[in-house]
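Notes, p. 3: input format for complexes.
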Amino acid sequence: MRILITGAGGQLGRALQEALTLHMLIPLARTDLDITDRAAVFRAILRRRPDGVVHAAAMTDVDGCARDPERAFRVNALGTQTVAMACAAVGAAMVYISTNEVFDGTKAEPYLEFDPPNPINPYGRSKWAGEWFVSHLLRRFYIVRTAWVFGPGGNHFVRKILQRADEQGTLRVVHDEVGSPSYTRDVAAAIARLIETGAYGIYHFVNEGMCSRYEYAVEILRRTGRSHIPVTPISLAEFPRPSRVPPFTPLRNLCGASLGITLRPWPEALQAYLAEEGWLVA
Ligand SMILES: NC(=O)c1ccc[n+]([C@@H]2O[C@H](COP(=O)([O-])OP(=O)(O)OC[C@H]3O[C@@H](n4cnc5c(N)ncnc54)[C@H](OP(=O)(O)O)[C@@H]3O)[C@@H](O)[C@H]2O)c1
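Output follows (282 residues plus NAP):
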């Protein structure tokens, strides 16, 4: 298949390029294609006529989205609308990467693909609006929700924890935000399998299991030989942010599993990533 990737310069975009090597790829980073430029999006997709588009470009700075919601909607909602319209124009199937933040975090159990979204911050609302456009403008689409993404080159939680641990020698991490860490390579590999199925719909591709930010930080420090760094558990209320945080958003992969597509438990994925970066000691 000819597959065009938006946001190809991002952490997931890069992993997608490695996972989709059996296909003919058209990877477009932000400098190649700004998804808020409608004419440029149509030009790119109409000229190249891909069979599929993996739309990974997004404004992913959750607090930045809260500070500038209009920009969040321009990129994440309207940018996705444009990509979906261009896919419709050439008959391309679309994979839209979405997020755990479409949920409000009040459920007592991990969220299924069939649970109703109810986003509580501008990032979540803009991504949910993107989902709406994709599902209303196209018949052949996959919405792939992932969460707490880490991988080579990303500015993610794992990297930030290690940086802060080394700079400050002590950490304060929230214990009442719970989610599902996800390794870019595992998510990209799952997407590569999904697009072979033709089973269009909504998917939750996260590494198996869940943890609090506090538990996650402790695990990162332990596996990188930094167990001596003291970590104080704090509550979300003690760590005010511009964006409201949905407190409990682990995702459950029911639909992917029914196709035989599962992701390994997050501690194994974290171990693999730390080894890849050369940070692993335990
Ligand atoms: N990171 C997470 O924890 C997480 C969790 C759930 C879902 N997701 C979703 O996963 C997808 C991939 O995110 P990621 O983790 O790979 O984040 P990322 O590394 O920030 O990648 C996003 C990419 O989109 C690009 N971008 C931003 N605005 C753009 C625009 N107007 N036009 C074209 N490209 C633009 C960014 O370019 P610049 O770097 O130049 O801004 C960046 O390369 C996104 O859809 C995101 O919503 C991410």
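Residues 69-90 form the longest helix (22 residues).
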